[in-house]
Amino acid sequence: MIDILNALALLANFVIVPALAYGSQLALGALGVTMIYAVLRFSNFAHGETMSFGAMISVLATWGLQEAGITIGSLPTALLALPISIIATVCVCLLFDRLVYRYYRTQKAAPVTYLIISVGVLFVLSGVIRFIIGPKDQIFADGQRFILKARAFKEMTGLDQGLAIKTTQGVTVVTAVVIVALLFWFLNRTRTGKSMRAYSDNEELALLSGINPARVVMITWIITGALAAIAGTLYGLDKGYKPFTYLGLVLPIFSAAIVGGVGNPVGAIFGGFVIAFSEMLLTFAYKRVIAYLTPGDWVPDGLMQLLATDYKLAVSFVILVIVLLIKPTGMFSGKTL
Amino acid sequence: MTERWRNSLLFAGMAALLVAVGVFQSSNLALAILNLCLISAIMTLGVNIQWGYAGLFNAGVMGFTALGGLAAVIISVPPVTEAWTAGGVRAVSGLCLGVLAIALGILTWKKLALNKTARGWASALIVVIGVVVMRWVIDPAVEAIEAVEPAKTGFLGGFGLPIMFAWMAGGALAALAAWAIGKISLGLRSDYLAIATLGISEIIIYILKNEDWLARGVKNVNGLSRPVPYEIELQSTLWVQSLASRIDINLIELSSIIVKLCYAGLFVVVLALIYWLSERALRSPWGRMMRAIRDNEIAAGAMGKNVTSRHLQVFILGSAVIGIAGAMLTTLDGIFTPSTYQPLRFTFLVWVMVIVGGSGNNLGSILGGFVIWFFWIEAEPLGLGLISFLTSSMAEDSPIRIHLLQNAAYTRYITMGAVLLLVLRFSPRGLIPERNR
Fold first, then answer.
1. Nearest by Cα to B412 from B365, B367, B369, B378
2. How far does the CA of residue A100 sit from the closest CA of chain B (Å)?
3. What CATH number does residue A35 fall under?
4. A229 burial via Cβ count (<10 Å: 0-12, 13-18, 19+)
5. ipTM of the shown complex
6. Is B352 an 8 Å CB contact of chain A?
7. Distance (Å, rounded) from C-alpha A146 to C-alpha B47?
8. pLDDT digits over A20-73, tens only?
9. pTM of this structure
């Protein structure tokens, strides 16, 4: 019995807790992609860089706050910096919409044109980011490192295996839950949210019933910018801010959005967790878990790892391929908000 | 001004830019830029075949380029006999097992007379068992191969053939990958192809970085053989020595110029051949059909054209051209370094080239490849100059100035993005627009 609990603690420590945090980050990212898809009807390749931009502003603002001596005790200062980052990222999104995307909306350009435009935006943003903060890693997490230390858990439960929860992981999950709740409240309960859903569902009918398209688009960019800033900051807080990793996040984020059904917010959240858990479960070395679960002192020879950790990215790709082959519309057949 | 004159003028302007670099900076640099311009032009032609002829968005140019590079290694490096005896047969048979498992899985999915769920589970089971068996076969072999003199080899090596064969092999390898990815994602919505190719290209790079037994991973394979003579050989040749003294130039510099000229000659031949073939294809009934499909898929489908399989065909052809360019690039570098493949440089920059040059026009693609590569290289000193001019009022040791100067190189990303956006906005047909036929 105690062995089973130990195995569970081991799994929780190395798979469940990190996957919950990573899944929340992916879900927030995928929500941004899905919102753009639902309202503006294109795949925004620049979303990763938008997240990176938000994270960069958080890093800079955190440094500023730390200089000024403002912190919030055991929580990371980046949480205080988050509003600044959200405002800045939303401004950048609105600026790009005004300067770049708006023209193509009036032209009724094809989705693939938007795709190329988002590549241009990606280039500009990644240049701006590297120009301002440089290509190197930045660590900006401060405050207390752990909510629950491995040793404390061991003493509390008397198990051999420790379970540690990093503050950043806790912050990530809590923030994500709050943000998602707010988003769904907005989409389902407010007039503006309903008009967005109507616009996404049937553009002509929405226009006919007097919904202002410019306003819907603006609010979409505001929400997307805010989501990107939050997701980027949380990811950077959890794993350290490296500008180049965000381009690599585009693939898991798009996979998450497609798995759930592009354009569907519930699907995006579901997809984020599917991707995160599959990545963690497939690249985890089960050696010690199996040793706990089998009777006696037998320990398996190999690591019992299905995939090398380096192939994390391949997992999201394979899931994407399977979904494309079996159900291209995703689990929650998408394209409506 | 007729179209022909305009185009000649544009190309003359490009040539003048290169000559200017030769005069003001150095002729070696000008030739180095020229060689990479030629390779970029071939890559751009490949993307243009996909985008300009058929409207397919390939976001995985980097992956196909890297596959070309892998082909250069596999074809040209002599086989490492020790590694082959240590586990070569086992590794190769493991790979074959993996391919077989996937093929069996697909066959089960397609042919088995069961309902959808049962077939799905059956083929998944087959693939999983196949992967486990493959790992069981391949893992010890990989370990044995990588243990063979890891500092020098530690991989299987290749066929030891002349590296020029790799240019064709690179195309073939890229075509194979394109076939697989096209089978999955063509026929669905257009952005799915973009996302799938983006994914596959990242994964190809991960595989190349991590599978040391294949091409040494991040340890790189250097000293690839060359299709042209070495500088050292040239320096000891009589005619080179006499030429150097006659035109009064440093012997070492002259030998390097000759080598670069040889490469340029080879690249020009390949570029001309591919250009001629793609022009022929574009003017043929096949090209007309492709444009018809691009402009109105539904109408073309109604005329009995199989849109998905034509798309697959053109996607494979374009990727093969990119693969050829990738193999040429690795040949020119003489070294295969998987970690240098960055999506911004190898995928999205090529896209800027296609759009700026003029999508759908092969001549435009070539010009786009030249112009954008030229400015990609020259934007670095230009950006540095601009920043130091803008910050010249600041103190010499001001931290902001130092920081900005350090990151000045990244202004070229901003420039490229801005160029792409401006061209799309104000001249979406590019420098040399597609001809109306």
1. B378
2. 7
3. 1.10.3470
4. buried
5. 0.89
6. yes
7. 49
8. 999 999 999 999 999 999 898 889 999 999 999 999 999 999 999 988 888 887
9. 0.91
